[in-house]
Design brief:
255 residues, alpha+beta, 5-stranded mixed β-sheet, 5-stranded antiparallel β-sheet
Length: 255
């Protein structure tokens, strides 16, 4: 499919994003071919993403029920997929729908957390064991599922092998917070354009499907991560209902 991907300019390195979504750097739209992943043999370990069939009884209108039912289910999925010894789920976000909850689809190629932010989350999730866990390999893995069939703004994921380490730029969460080293400052990683990028999506995703993708991996010095973004689907039916989804972050621990 011919569309475009919204990238950050190279001036994003060291920039910031405010809580209201404002940012301090430029954005660039680049034409892109977004490939149908259903037509290819996709492997999580190779490409950095995969599609998993999964039905759940969790009530996504009830945050307590989501944490009680869906979080453990998501952890089991990640364990089975990766062989991780332990998985923590955190920071689930519901987006879109008629109320445009969660800010709606995010049109910007990015990775949620850099290493400093990921380590910070581990320390918050397991404070009594943080010293031990932080010595292990940590991998941020997200699970994205639609809450209704996706008819517009599908999620695109980039083949992790096609992204260079230099394409990632550290962006701070808020204007302050930088330590002596930008690498030690908790933030996200925005993505700069590179013509090598290979983008994929799963057309017509259903509520019993989950797109699982690998983000920051402390055991990978070359940063083979799966950038992701919503994108405009030119084949979307006019007047189709707004996309509605639930995205959950996890951190997988490897001994």
């Amino acid at each position: 499919m011919n569309s475009f991907i919204r990238y950050s300019g190279r001036d994003a390195e060291g920039g910031f994003i405010r809580a209201n979504g404002d940012y301090s750097f430029s954005m660039e739209d680049h034409p892109a071919i977004v490939r149908n992943a259903r037509l290819e043999k996709i492997d999580f370990a190779t490409h950095g993403f995969t599609l998993v069939k999964h039905r759940t009884e969790a009530n996504f209108d009830d945050p307590a029920d989501i944490e009680r039912r869906y979080y453990p289910e998501a952890c089991r999925i990640v364990k089975e997929l990766t062989g991780a010894s332990e998985v923590f789920a955190f920071l689930g976000i519901r987006r879109g729908g008629e109320s445009n909850a969660g800010g709606g689809p995010a049109l910007s190629a990015h990775v949620d957390f850099n290493e400093a932010a990921l380590r910070g989350w581990v320390a918050r999730l397991a404070p009594d064991r943080a010293e031990t866990l932080l010595r292990k390999r940590l991998v941020n893995i997200n699970l994205w599922r639609p809450l209704r069939p996706v008819e517009n703004y599908p999620l695109a994921v980039c083949d992790a092998r096609s992204v260079d380490k230099s394409d990632f730029m550290t962006v701070r969460f808020g204007e302050g917070g930088q330590t002596a080293s930008l690498a030690e400052t908790a933030g996200g990683l925005n993505v700069a354009f590179n013509p090598k990028h290979r983008w994929y999506y799963y057309p017509n995703m259903q509520p019993d499907e989950i797109l699982v993708f690998r983000l920051f991996d402390t055991g990978d010095p070359e940063w083979h991560m799966t950038a992701h973004t919503a994108f405009e689907d030119p084949t979307s039916r006019p007047g189709s209902p707004p996309r509605e989804s639930f995205e959950l972050r996890t951190v997988a621990i490897f001994d």
